[in-house]
Amino acid sequence: QTVVVKLRSHDFKDSQRIREWEQLIKAAEKDQAKMVIFDLNVNGEIPWESQERILDSLSKITVPTLAFVNSGATGAGALIAVGSDTNYMSPNGIIGGAGISIPDIDNEEAQKRKLAQQLSLLKARARNLAKTKGHRVEIVEAFIDSENEVKYGEEVVSKKGEILTLTASEAVKEIDGKPLLAKGLAVSLEALLNIVS
Description:
Layout: E1 2-8, H1 15-30, E2 35-42, H2 48-60, E3 65-74, H3 76-82, E4 86-89, E5 94-96, H4 108-133, H5 137-144, E6 150-152, E7 155-158, E8 165-167, H6 168-171, E9 174-175, E10 178-179, E11 184-185, H7 189-196
């Protein structure tokens, strides 16, 4: 069977909801689900500890996973999509902008060090997931770090100085025979279930 897990922004601001999400994944694996589909409408920032936990959980999933960017997958939502084997987008969906929030530290120098450390860790974990799942590492890094320019031939996909966020049509665009991030478009979850079943 296919397990559909609806995820919304508020789900990741509560450690109890994250625990429930992790238990759902374990149950799907125990029941040998055919696939887990994350129905994503997750935007905005979440606490650093929650991001780490999500990335850690995603790296351990053994069941095939698919992220459906139903509306938006920015911040933590983009990380869930990167940690999924396959991505589909709703025609109006957006994905990206997975940067981190500035740590709440009074000392400016300590704050810069902490931010640099968190950014480095987030990029490394996201790179690992992208490689494991077969996604373009440079796209995933551009979701997180504004210093990354992504260019294919003469086409600039992400300018230096900007955090990358892709529209649905951009995410499915093929360059060198491979989409930037998403396999295809689906107008609804029901339509997606018909495509993948």
